[in-house]
């Protein structure tokens, strides 16, 4: 549910994960509990489902729709449901967008197709987003990808064109580099001041929050929702000592999850943390190659133990 507020999208969102049963199908009961766990902390205003951490690119169309449906049924009455849209084919992307809204999503976040990493085509990118905006009557969020993701990281001219599209309400800013983040924040303030710029680089939250942000959509909040809500609140209150204390507790874990190669195993590591917390029985993903070595498991476990100090029972 989008609240009646001058700044309805402001705040922290947990980018959810997807649990699978032994046969590879969606574990609906565990996913429902995961939704409650992610949003239990005061300050978590909603979720991003069907994002990268939610294995969007590995789910079927029906599975993506069901994920949204479960989220809307479980927490939709008092939390904002944002669904990611990721498809190489534009017609398919529009179908997924319509599915998500019909299933109960409040807003959509359009991810750049992975093929865009090879080259950047201004007209194709604008056409892709325009078609999705026209396919649904819903707020749309942009995704600014990391500086290391090639053409998926929009140039300033492309981002400016996207910001001017009708229906755009926010950017999930994942540049993973603070100077780039600040450039994009300043651009949005100049050409589209109504658009929220949400600092969403899980390894760079404190510095980007300090520069200025209107929220965050991060998978770290799927395992540490209380800590992320407290970090947001501390920066909102200009309490830098408290924010630094939280940062010191969670940063080593963030670095192990997102900073270690191969970075594509971040979802696996996040799921492993849920296993360590006793919430999930396995960290199964849709990638057959996803394996955590015993040494890495021990490092993750130690870092998670330290980070959990702020989470409470």
From TrEMBL:
InterPro entries named in the record: Aldolase_TIM, DapA-like
Superkingdom of the source species: Bacteria
Pfam families noted in UniProt: DHDPS
Keyword flag Lyase: yes
Molecular function terms, GO-annotated: 4-hydroxy-tetrahydrodipicolinate synthase activity
Positions annotated as active site in the UniProt record: 143 (proton donor/acceptor), 172 (schiff-base intermediate with substrate)
UniProt entry keywords in alphabetical sequence: Lyase
Gene3D superfamilies recorded: Aldolase class I (3.20.20.70)
CDD domains: DHDPS-like
Keyword Nucleotide-binding: no
PANTHER family assigned to the protein according to its UniProt record, in alphabetical order: DIHYDRODIPICOLINATE SYNTHASE (PTHR12128)
Similarity comment: family membership: Belongs to the DapA family.
Name this protein carries in UniProt: Dihydrodipicolinate synthase family protein
């Amino acid at each position: 549910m989008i609240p009646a507020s001058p700044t309805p999208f402001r705040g922290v969102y947990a980018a959810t994960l997807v649990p699978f049963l032994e046969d590879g199908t969606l574990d609906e009961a565990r996913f429902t509990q995961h939704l409650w766990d992610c949003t239990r902390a005061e300050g978590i205003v909603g979720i991003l489902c069907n994002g990268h951490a939610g294995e969007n690119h590995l789910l079927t169309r029906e599975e993506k729709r069901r994920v949204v449906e479960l989220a809307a049924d479980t927490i939709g009455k008092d939390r904002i449901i944002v669904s990611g849209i990721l498809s190489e084919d534009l017609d398919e992307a529009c179908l997924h967008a319509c599915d998500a809204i019909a299933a109960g999503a409040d807003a959509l976040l359009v991810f750049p197709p992975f093929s865009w990493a090879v080259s950047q085509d201004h007209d194709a990118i604008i056409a892709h987003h325009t078609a999705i905006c026209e396919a649904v009557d819903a707020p749309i969020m942009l995704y600014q990808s990391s500086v290391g993701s090639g053409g998926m990281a929009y140039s300033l001219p492309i981002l400016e064109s996207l910001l001017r599209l009708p229906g755009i309400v926010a950017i999930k800013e994942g540049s993973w580099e603070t100077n780039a983040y600040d450039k994009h924040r300043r651009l949005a303030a100049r050409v589209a001041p109504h658009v929220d710029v949400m600092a969403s680089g899980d390894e760079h939250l404190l510095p980007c929050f300090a520069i200025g942000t209107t929220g965050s959509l991060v998978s770290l909040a799927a395992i540490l929702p209380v800590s992320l809500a407290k970090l947001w609140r501390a920066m909102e209150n200009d309490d830098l000592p408290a924010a630094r204390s939280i940062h010191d507790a969670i940063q080593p874990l963030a670095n192990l999850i997102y900073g270690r190669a191969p970075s594509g195993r971040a979802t696996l590591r996040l799921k492993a943390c849920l296993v360590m917390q006793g919430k999930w029985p396995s960290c199964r993903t849709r990638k057959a190659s996803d394996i955590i070595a015993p040494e890495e498991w021990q490092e993750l476990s130690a870092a998670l133990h330290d980070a959990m100090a702020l989470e409470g029972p």
